[in-house]
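Fold sample X.
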Amino acid sequence: MFMTHGTNPAADPRPPGDVIVGVDGSRASDSAVRWAARTAAERGRLLRILHGLGLTTAGLLLGSDRLGAADALDKLRRKADECVAGAVALARETAPELDIDTEVSDLGPARLLIEQSRSAHLVVLGVSGVGGALTRLGSTLTAVVAHGHGAIVVVRGADEQDPDLSARPVVVGVDGNPAGQAATRVAFAEADALGVPLVAVHTWSDLPVGGLPGAAPELDPMTEAEAQRTLQEQLARCQEQYPDVVIVRKVYLSGPRDRLIGWSRSAQLLVVGSRGRGGFRGLLLGSTSQTLVQQSHCPVMVVHQR
């Protein structure tokens, strides 16, 4: 498989670590494994396939029957080993020359992935379906996206058979807060590594489309100039570091969620910060990021400020 490290890998703010994927044997997990394997192979990175047993929870459920508990735990471990072996086979099918490491941990899957995210280049999980409350995505995914470190990728909506997928752009939501600035840096690094354009989307207001009473549906010239200036200020430093990345700037009056969901239909990756510019300090995952993880039509990378 052709390896690409981009034109300026030293500018990538993420650790030069491994690509980590959490697996549970589901179809969504398989999609995450394929995405992670391709990415690790293209970047020349080790792929680490992790499965968390959650033995503390299992022990509570099994109770005091030691003999029965031992038998049940043995079955649990065998099933975990089978799950990881299947993921390894799938990764090898996707990228035959890929270096792979595996771990079956006694920790719960969320805690395992959150801890490993501290030094990872990427952490990848899968989710199936579109829409629904965030809690329906699963407690592991919800916890890792909210509490993980660095870049967390939720694989969803990608048509792996689409011959034009590799030419689609990376799309980033730009809002100017620290987490958003980290997302912009990572988005440039992704576009550079993939050799595709970067679409930078900025909205003047966080209100939904039509949420500004009495306002025109589009930006007036003065407001558009202000929005363009804000966007340019946020992109300037990254442009210097990645001069070969082609940038498409898009500014809108409002509706960041709707705008980004719309752009996800034609993107190969959507990058957002973990918290929006209007987020509360204690809120680890902003409402826009939550919505995109639920409803995006392509993989979503949620970037936490380190």
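Fold sample Y, listed below.
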Amino acid sequence: MKFVICDVFTDKAFGGNQLAVFPDARGLGEGAMQALAREFNFAETTFVLPPQDPRHFRRVRIFTPKVELPFAGHPTVGTAAVLAALNSFDSGTIVLEEGIGAVTVELELGGRAPFARLGLEKEVESPPETPTRAAAAAALSLPEAAVRDAWFASVGVPFCFIELAERAAVDRASLDRAAWSEHFARAWAPSLYLFAGERAPGSRLYARMFAPAYGIEEDAASGSACAALAGRLAGRLGEREGTFTWRIDQGVAMGRPSLIEASAEKQAGRVAKLKVGGYSVIVGEGNMRT
């Protein structure tokens, strides 16, 4: 069965976040999909199927080495770029079916690499409870003074967002599994997305992400987290209308630098649309015996 390997949120081979895409996964059962995702051991592997709604382009299932996800950013962006390359698309828009429903992806082709931008028309979900700064600091092996704020949020996959005082603290962070197990393993969101930088729109943020519950020690680029982060930051702004954009560097500490563009559109004081985009580079393809 054919697969394609793609580096996502980068315009250079061997940067960004790795993704394995099976462009025609018909005939594969869920167990086989999970086994293949575990074999590749990338943060995610995607399996492309015919759509359930004929108005849509394809259905996509997303697996980490441990579990299936209803949605994720870098698999959506990378899968769209791979499908565009294989089907010789022009620039345009496609709709992919995922666990959270239909996801629109805008494609810009013909440049130095395919650029894909996913769009979601939904609000950011957050629970009433918030993690303590002390718990966040302990899970990251940092002093409490290094943590400015922490909250839970999701646009399909829940994250604990931890805002740190400076970029150096992001680099110093190291997952303390005992503290993570105590404070986050059974929390509303077990995955930790830590970042630093100015909150103002137009700023460039610096981030890392740990997701041990999903079998991901560290993620080089987390598009769904970036969408939720942009939505939360935009929601805190005083402006009631407009589109607000941030650029996020992630994966630098892993030697796989990624650049993610995340934006939120506000209408009548509420966040109505979220977008996340970036370049992707196909680096290889082959066949798996299944």
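Sample Y note: The longest strand covers residues 270-287.
Also: Residues 133-271 form a domain with the Diaminopimelate Epimerase; Chain A, domain 1 fold (CATH 3.10.310.10).
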